[in-house]
Amino acid sequence: MLNTLRPDPTFHPSARLAMEAPAELIAYTVLLSPDRSRPDALAVVDVDPQSAAYGTVIHRLVMPHSGDEFHHFGWNACSSVLSPLSGHAFLQRRYLVIPGIRSSRIYIVDTQPDPRAPVLVKTIEPDELLRKTGYSRPHTVHCGPEGIYISTLGGAGPDGTQGPPGVFVMDCENFEILGRWEIERGPQKLHYDFWWNLPRDYMVSSEWGLPPQFESGIVAEDLLAGKYGHAVHFWNLRERRHVQTIDLGANHQMALEVRPAHDPAREYGFLGVVVDTANLEGSIWTWYRENGRFRIRKSATIPAESADAGRLPALLKGFGAVPPLVTDIDLSLDDRFLYVACWGTGELRQYDVTDPMKPTLAGSVRVGGIARRTAHPNGRTVGGGPQMTEISRDGRRVYFTNSLYSSWDDQFYPDGVPGVQLMCKVGAGGGIELDPAFCVDFGPHYRAHQIRLQGGDCSTDSFCYPSA
Amino acid sequence: MNTAALWLAVVGLGLYHGLNPAMGWPLAVANGMAERRAGAVFATVLPLGGGHAMAIAVALAPFAWLGWYLEWSRAIRTGAGALVLLFGLYKLARPRHPRMLARIPPGRLAWWSFLMATAHGAGLMLVPFMLGLCAAPAPGMAAGAGAAATGHAGLMGQLARANLDTALLVTAVHALASMLAGLGMAWLVYRHLGLRFLRRTWFDLDAVWGASLALAGAAGIALAW
């Protein structure tokens, strides 16, 4: 990769400076073929309101293999490169690292020279990942000290259950897999998301389930038996050592997304829990550090909504209710608004988290949903519900897709989840509203998962300087 | 090159090292901002300066010790110059940055500063100039008659001590200049210029740094002859 003489202009020392950067013009969205009949793809979406192609797919990079199931992805380099400890800020935010969660294959896509027509430059085959790390099912991608960190959901063996999943490190210039990140993993056995506070030197990781618990769909018996992940782990980042586990209680099934405050001077963050098996509610938790120890508190709950059994899929008929299913959360760069995707009820919530211990509901939109099936303001019916959420750097636009994971989509939304990408506009003091003019249609054969914004967004970049 | 010019080079290299963001002043800015007090900027510069000084001393001491082989003086100085020159050329040819250093915990600043300066060859850059200063006659050393009375071994012992003293003095003067330059930059950014300045002015100095090493090495060889 070409080194630059100056830091990439999309790297920002603090979250506040990132908020002042120019608005995004392009979004990259991963598309998956739910029946694995076609190769997955990366869609380039025009999000420039001045463009004639606004809200449409302007390019589609189709991968050479099928069956990858794209889920999460990330940049080779982000604002964390400006860490004063790295001493070297001269990389480019240029390559997208796209793992296939089902195939364990990893694609490296170059967004230069034409960001509107990215090209595939390298493919890392699953056996290389397995040989060098013992991990499979690569998932979350973050740029950090030493290179690219990628979490995995599976260990070795055909079903990914031989050995625990974890995090591995990849070189951010030649994309060689360097090996496992953990030196001492403590009791950690499951994985999902991870993120960190770089200057404070800690990492937080969460739990979903092992591949047999998600690849063929949700395992209802495991869910009711409390066998999905329900703990959050804290790590010493540079020493690569597990330091603390907090168990949320077995009824809090699937502790998924981890969103630390962007300002590294603030030592707290949020965690979304998909479902409480006791009452089907979803919840938001706030973790914080006090006298060197991490603590966590349930800070918001979202109740299930009762529904006519006739409108419910087999999995939920017996309950007569729809769980909100908090499958994604995202925090604006000013650490003020937390967006909570309730994929089951078809609601996107905006919480004011100025006081992180007392999130207050500031806005809400509805689209899709298992029982409600709310139409988009443009009249279109939408399968699924608000799912992977991405906030613009300035916090004024919130983009989201509607698919969770192919086999789970089919269980909760048997009528199908044709891929769409929608957008909410955010009021100056809060409040959200769906933009009727923005509805990207990816066609009936593809579903859409995570979105990345050109120049960075609210779930990729980590900052090393306070916003003060 | 006369003694004054050599000392000027030592001070100049100190300012140059201190101003290079890779040697750590952005850490002082970040700590000041995180703690929201100016004192944290100053407190951070101390371990950074200490680590830098250690890295310089560790590189200079062996060469100072070798310096008492007066009869081999030219060969030692040429060899040292060639070593620095080659290290500079290596840095130019292979610009990859030692990313391992980003793994050191932010709390171990002196250790980080020591390793960062060592990896960059900060101490090596000073070797040719220090050897120039070692060769300069120290008070009481030049008189052959006085030395003869104490014998050859005594003279050599005196020389070795004097050269080590010179190395320590070079280290102290250089590190002080480096600390003051770093502190100045950190303070300006923390107090007046803000983080925008950091983004605007952070240039990749790796090539310049490699060239500086090569230049210092060449100067060392030239000084020996």
TrEMBL record, chain A:
GO molecular function, one term: methanethiol oxidase activity
A Pfam short name: SBP56
EC number(s) per entry: 1.8.3.4
Annotated coiled-coil segments of the chain: none
Catalytic activity entry: methanethiol + O2 + H2O = hydrogen sulfide + formaldehyde + H2O2 + H(+)
Matches recorded under Gene3D superfamilies: YVTN repeat-like/Quinoprotein amine dehydrogenase
InterPro entries named among the record's database cross-references: Se-bd (IPR008826), WD40/YVTN_repeat-like_dom_sf (IPR015943)
Domain of life: Bacteria
Membrane-traversing stretches: none
Pathway annotation: Organosulfur degradation
Similarity comment: family membership: Belongs to the selenium-binding protein family.
Name this polypeptide is given: Methanethiol oxidase
Top-level taxonomy: Bacteria, Pseudomonadati, Pseudomonadota, Betaproteobacteria, Burkholderiales
